[in-house]
Amino acid sequence: MKSRHINLDRLGWNEWFEERAECGPEDTIARVAAVDRDLLLLMDHTGTFRAKLAGSYLYRHHLSQELPCVGDWVCAEKHPTDDFGLVLMLLERRTALCRKSAGDSVEYQMIAANVDCVIIVQSCHYDFNLKRLERYLVMVRDGGADPCVLLTKTDLVEPEVIASQLAEIRAAGVAAPVLTLSNVTREGIDNLKRMLLPARTYCFVGSSGVGKSTIINQLLGREMLQTKGLSRTGEGRHTTVRRELIIIGGGALVIDNPGMREFGILGAESGIRDSFSDIIGLASGCRYRNCSHANEPGCAVREAVNSGVISQTHYDNYIKLREESEFHQMSYVEKRKKDRDFGRYIKSAKRDLRNF
Description:
The structure is a single chain. The protein is 33% helix and 21% strand. It is α/β, with parallel strands linked by helices. It folds into 3 domains: 3-90, CATH 2.40.50.140; 96-256, 3-Layer(aba) Sandwich (Rossmann fold); 269-343, Probable gtpase engc, domain 3 (Ribonucleotide Reductase Protein R1, domain 1), CATH 1.10.40.50. A 6-stranded mixed beta sheet has the order 10-9-8-11-13-12. The longest helix is centred in the last third of the chain and has 44 residues, at 312-355.
């Protein structure tokens, strides 16, 4: 590894990025810690500094997923006397966590990049939802990161409730690690701390009020991220408004996220394949190679559902997520084609005007 990058190791830099970095010898390599509209907070071996995207970069890159997000590595131009750096290039992402943009827009929305592990947080109290958990797992695996499930608010439910939820998770074929935790009794905090390794990046995702910011404050040992008290239902009242990369005491890097109740699936074929490997494995025994696992005769998947080998809920969620992903991906491709056709039309019109 080149000596000029060795001090970036603690920020998550490794040989994978080193082999792909194409920054100039005078450029500063930095990691995106936060994004606030057109301003970025960057981290390098000297500390943090603010930066803007170079005009030339914005001219060449128009898609939302082409813009830097929290966790990205960038090449920047930064002189000691300047207040701002200038981002010249976005380095290749090793992993990416993204979703379909909220609402009717069929676009990718980047959540975080270059994350080693995504910790999916659900409350044992009111927030536990197996279908939503499977949805998160699909997108985590599709982006290349490792998933981990964290069940919080264990002090608000009886032990048999937690046991039932753990059984549901395992019955759905979820092989990811599952931890339980209470921010009140602190039971489970030490297990979480032991999992967080130096120079690795962990992204906390989940609905509002499940305790993500409180957990990170526990890991930091101080109230860095604002939280509010519990509501009358026992759930937290969420205050996180932006994603931010933070280094905690043991050297791990963590990303807090605003709550996300809507997590649309877009083009997540590999994530669905990995998350529903039990169903995909059975599909090889179907009579027809292109079996949709709906009403075809000789469908091994439907037979497994009817015999109880696979739960109806698990099967229904697989069908729903697959159809949603395919529909949004088709819409996205069609939109991109319309954009390209319109772009060609504009260029042609300008050329005709010049020749007129």
